[in-house]
C-alpha cells in the first residue's frame, strides 16, 4: 500500500536554488508546449486536462499566465470554477465540469475543479464524511472515464503554499492597486480554516487513482518551472503526430494554368 502523503511534511519552498538556468529551462519547455499543442490539435486523437488546485493566493492564475499564455488560444480553454450557480447546483456535482472537459485535440485548464465539491463542502460541513467518500469514488470513476473513453490525459497539480506566504499575497491584494480587484474579504475568513483545508486536501490527494503533483509555490518561478516541465513531459509522452496527406503527393502547382 502506498505511503500516506502528509502535506505538513512537504516543504513549500524550492528543492533547489532559483537560477538563470531554471528560468531558461522554463522558457524552453513553454516553447515546446506550443509546438506539441499544434500537433495535438491537428491529430485530434487525444486531449489534455490540467487541473490546478490550491488555497486562495497560491498562484493558480499566475501559473496559467506563465505556462499557457503563449499557446494558441483557439486550441486552449481555461475554466475557473467558483460557487455553483443555481442551475449547476440543481445537477449532480460533476455536471458543470463534464460539459467543459476537453474535446480531442484540445488542452483545457481547470482553475479549481470538481475537487472543490469535496474539499470546500467538507471544510464547511455541508456534506458528511460518507458523502465526501462517495464523491471521491465518483471522481475516480469520472477521471477513468475521461482517460479510457476520450483518450484524455488528466494532469493534476496541488499548489502547495505556506500560511505565511498566503497571508503575504492576500495582503498584496489590499496594498497593491493593480491587484485590488482580486481582493475578497471572504478569502481571509477561509484562511482562518487553514488546518481543516489541509486535512481535506490531504484526503483527496491520498484517495485519488490519478496521482497529484505537489508543487511548492512559495517561490513562484519554481512553480512555473515544475508545471511547465510536467506538462511538456506529459505531452511528449502522449506523442501527438501531425497527420499525413490522405492523397498521393503531387505537384498541384504545376497543373494550374494562368490566363
Folded structure, characterized:
- It is built from ten helices and five strands.
- It has helices at 20-43, 60-68, 86-89, 95-98, 116-123, 129-149, 163-175, 185-191, 194-206, 220-238; strands spanning 47-54, 76-80, 107-111, 152-160, 212-216.
- A five-stranded parallel sheet has the order 2-3-1-4-5, sandwiched between helices.
- With 259 residues, the chain is of the alpha/beta class.
- It has one domain (16-238): P-loop containing nucleotide triphosphate hydrolases (Rossmann fold), CATH 3.40.50.300.
Secondary-structure map with pairings?
Layout: H1 20-43, E1 47-54, H2 60-68, E2 76-80, H3 86-89, H4 95-98, E3 107-111, H5 116-123, H6 129-149, E4 152-160, H7 163-175, H8 185-191, H9 194-206, E5 212-216, H10 220-238
Parallel strand pairs: 1-3, 1-4, 2-3, 4-5
Q: What attributes does this structure have?
A:
Rossmann fold; 259 residues; 5-stranded parallel β-sheet; alpha/beta; 47% helix; 10 helices
CATH architecture: 3-Layer(aba) Sandwich
> Nearest-angstrom radius of gyration?
21 Å
Q: Can you tell me the CATH topology?
A: Rossmann fold
Strand content: 5-15%
Beta strands, count: 5
Which homologous superfamily in CATH is the superfamily? Answer: P-loop containing nucleotide triphosphate hydrolases
Distance between the termini: 76 Å
Briefly note the structural class of the backbone. Answer: alpha/beta
Q: How many domain regions?
A: 1
Task: Please give the largest β-sheet.
Answer: 5 strands, parallel
Low-pLDDT stretches: none
Q: How many helical elements?
A: 10
Global mean pLDDT? 94
Amino acid at each position: 500500500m502506498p505511503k500516506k502523503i502528509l502535506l505538513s511534511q512537504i516543504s513549500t519552498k524550492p528543492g533547489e536554488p532559483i537560477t538563470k538556468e531554471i528560468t531558461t529551462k522554463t522558457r524552453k519547455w513553454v516553447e515546446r508546449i506550443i509546438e506539441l499543442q499544434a500537433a495535438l490539435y491537428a491529430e485530434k486523437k487525444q486531449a489534455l486536462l490540467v487541473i490546478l488546485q490550491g488555497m486562495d493566493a497560491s498562484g493558480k492564475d499566475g501559473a496559467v499566465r506563465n505556462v499557457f499564455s503563449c499557446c494558441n488560444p483557439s486550441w486552449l480553454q481555461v475554466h475557473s470554477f467558483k460557487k455553483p450557480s443555481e442551475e449547476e447546483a440543481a445537477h449532480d456535482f460533476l455536471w458543470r465540469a463534464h460539459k467543459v472537459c476537453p474535446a480531442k485535440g484540445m488542452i483545457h485548464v481547470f482553475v479549481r475543479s470538481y475537487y472543490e465539491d469535496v474539499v470546500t463542502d467538507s471544510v464547511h460541513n455541508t456534506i458528511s464524511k460518507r458523502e465526501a467518500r462517495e464523491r471521491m469514488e465518483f471522481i475516480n470513476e469520472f477521471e477513468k472515464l475521461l482517460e479510457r473513453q476520450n483518450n484524455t490525459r488528466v494532469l493534476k497539480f496541488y499548489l502547495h503554499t505556506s500560511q505565511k506566504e498566503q497571508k503575504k499575497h492576500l495582503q498584496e491584494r489590499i496594498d497593491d492597486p493593480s491587484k485590488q480587484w482580486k481582493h475578497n474579504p471572504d478569502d481571509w475568513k477561509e484562511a482562518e480554516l487553514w488546518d481543516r483545508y489541509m486535512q481535506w486536501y490531504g484526503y483527496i490527494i491520498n484517495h485519488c487513482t490519478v496521482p497529484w503533483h505537489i508543487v511548492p509555490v512559495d517561490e513562484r518561478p519554481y512553480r512555473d518551472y515544475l508545471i511547465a516541465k510536467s506538462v511538456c513531459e506529459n505531452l511528449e509522452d502522449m506523442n501527438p503526430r501531425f497527420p499525413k496527406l490522405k492523397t498521393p503527393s503531387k505537384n498541384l502547382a504545376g497543373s494550374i494554368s494562368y490566363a
